[in-house]
Design goal:
The complex is a heterodimer of chains A (402) and B (389).
Chain A lengths: L1 H29 L4 H12 L5 H24 L7 H8 L7 H36 L11 H16 L17 H26 L5 H24 L3 H12 L7 H20 L1 H7 L3 H6 L4 H23 L5 H13 L4 H23 L10 H19 L3 H4 L3
Helix pairs in contact in A: 1-3, 3-5, 3-15, 4-5, 5-10, 5-13, 5-14, 5-15, 6-7, 6-8, 6-9, 6-13, 7-8, 7-10, 7-13, 10-13, 14-15, 14-16, 15-16
Chain B lengths: L6 E10 L7 E7 L2 E2 L4 E5 L6 H8 L7 E6 L2 E2 L5 H5 L2 E4 L11 H7 L13 H13 L15 H14 L4 E5 L7 H18 L2 E5 L3 H7 L2 E5 L5 E4 L1 H6 L2 H6 L4 E4 L4 E4 L6 E5 L3 H12 L3 E3 L2 H6 L3 H4 L8 H6 E6 L4 E6 L2 E5 L2 H11 L16 H14 L1
Parallel strand pairs in B: 4-9, 4-10, 7-8, 8-9, 14-15, 14-16
Antiparallel strand pairs in B: 1-2, 1-3, 1-5, 5-6, 10-11, 12-13, 16-17, 17-18
Classes of the chains: A mainly alpha (402), B alpha/beta (389).
Chain lengths: 402, 389
Amino acid sequence: MRLGDIAFQTLAAADTVILMVAGLSFSRVNSGMDTENRAGFQKSLATGHWSLATSYWLLIGLALVTLMAFLLSLAIGSVLIPTDEIVAVLLGGDASKPAWTTIVLRFRLPKALTAMLAGAALSVSGLQMQTLFRNPLAGPFVLGISAGASLGVALIVLLAGVAVGLGGSTTGLAGISLAGDTSLALSAILGSGLVLLLVLSVARKVQSGMTLLILGLMFGYATSALVSVLIYFSVADRIQAYISWTFGSFGSVTWRQLQVMAPTILLGLAGSHLLMKPLNALLLGETYARSLGLNVRQARLGIIGSSAVLAGVVTAFCGPIGFLGIAVPHLCRSLLHTSDHRLLLPAVSFMGATLALGADIVAGLPGSQLTLPLNAVTALLGAPVVIWVILRQRNVQEAFAG
Amino acid sequence: MTDRIILQTDALSIGYRRARRADVVVARNLNFVLRPGELVCLLGPNGAGKSTLMRTLARLQPPLSGQIWLDDRPLGDLRPGQLARRLSVVLTERVDVGAMSGYGLVSLGRHPHTGWTGALSERDRRIVHWALQAVRAQDLADRRLLEMSDGERQKVLIARALAQEPRVMLLDEPTAFLDLPRRVEVMELLRRLAQENQQAILLSTHDLDLALRNADRLWLLAAEGALYDGAPEDLILNGAFERVFAGEGVTFDRHSGFFHTRQQTCGRVLVHGHSAAAFWTRRALERIGYAVVADADALSKESAIALERRTDPCPDAAAESTISVRVQDSGPTYALDIAGREDSFTTLDALTTYLRRIHPGITGVSPASPPRKGEADAETDQDLHAQRR
């Protein structure tokens, strides 16, 4: 099975690099360090968590893996393009075959960039939600944020018909004008933000996380119901467009759409990275965070705001992509053995980007003209990985740290 | 002497505001001070408002009226960061951050002192180490929270509060969920910290005995909202304890410093001897419902609290003056003398079992026919029973 081979090769390559980097830092610590340090290092090995220096090396390793996955996703597809050709194209040159230049620049590069941005955005959003609600099951999906975004998009696609001037040719979202992009993104952000604010206003009254999750689910159901109503009264063309949007895809995002998406996501990521200190304080719960001098209301608003922007924008352009947002934070915590958001936020960004790229490569069914729905791939490939990671831990608590 | 006061309240009323209804006032007109270097324990029955008071002092909820002064400034005027550098808390809320190390948790205490990333400076790191050392938990620095026992967690949480370098530390029931040795350890730790760092430490607890032994002062918060403030011994002698815990189904014994459930005492026993064995014999007899008096003089003077509180005179008058237990320390053996007839036991279990059988009404054990029971005893047993039913 070619598909399986490639998936495993990708994973194996990622593992190797991580191990190499980890090994590198081992040798660095062990050589030329005094015995006291070495004892300390071995101690931290015995207790199973990395020293700070090691964590930074792991972070660099993750970044390298992301870079590799990026190059891989440019190389693999319906045709295989050699890596040196890709580098040449990226550096502004031309590939030996003009078609390759077109493929890389017009299709694969925007798709890879979209995947990286979306993966990072969803994962960071998930991490923030898990910490804010101190619940391992939290994520953009569970609390209905993506459902809210879906409603926003459904309203635009099914009712308003944003594709102004394109007549009946609305087969996908790719043809939508820049003005349409902006309103699409805005409606998704509004939809997701609205649901999140709703969840939060309730969250202030109920203290139990379980209640909150149930409420989030209910909000999700309610918005889905509204979407159903919209679909029921809509024409077939629009419904087709909406349904293919729900499958999730990185490939339908054009350069022009990226001009809206990339800055927004980068802004959202920057915003969430600015919140690393409040997030760390919130690990102890809101009361402790307040006693540490944190303005909890402000921090909560910031976290929710950046989360809604990140999840909303991704959902608007790529569809409601499941799984990554919940899984990646868990994977990072168990890889880095830390709850410190100073490490987790960048780690989650890199890991999310890598996994999104990996999922996209697999969904593209390399060597064939077929593609799989992205959502199916993220869950099919990711669920076993997360199950394995969770079961490997001595205690589920260890895998989750919020 | 205002410079020696860190925290002061002025006509403070605490409680909860409710929308469109009258406020729930938990306690009103509280005036007290906290001085540097002292350990104050807040005691009171459940529901008296200990947690409300702690939360109000930590500005986690607003006072209904009155003023709290911290460092001669109104508590409400301090910015969140300023407050966090002066006051830290240890809450009952469980901290579930499984993957976090002890060091990581304690370093969160530096939060009010660090920049926007929360990165620790050299000084911050020194203080984190010092805090871990102060609670004698250096070996927990590398351990993850998940792998710690409750006592170890509590120590690390105290270290975290300490790392904030506060002038006042508030701890809400820090000894709950700990076994006895850990409770003693934590209490003595806090006492030492207060003295060494000249911090004011206020903790709420249900651990009466530990509070009596370790606190410099006690605050007794009564259910009706009155607060008694004073040295533990003063509060015992002036009867504040009895007042605060009255109506809780228990009485406070001014002499032993213990609470007794207010069960009817029945029968009096003389215990001779001052050794450890005699002490525990007293405890065993008290447990099964006897009022124990130290010697013959005390018996006639009725000075024991438990006797004063007796409401219903025991019908078993004969038994009152005739049971005496003589403890021989070599052994020990317990010689029981009831109306001139002597029995000897080698364990307190045997002694109390026997006494329960001849006075079944005391602890509600169903009467079995006791071995070697005299005629008089049988009659009184029946009397006793008739009265109880």
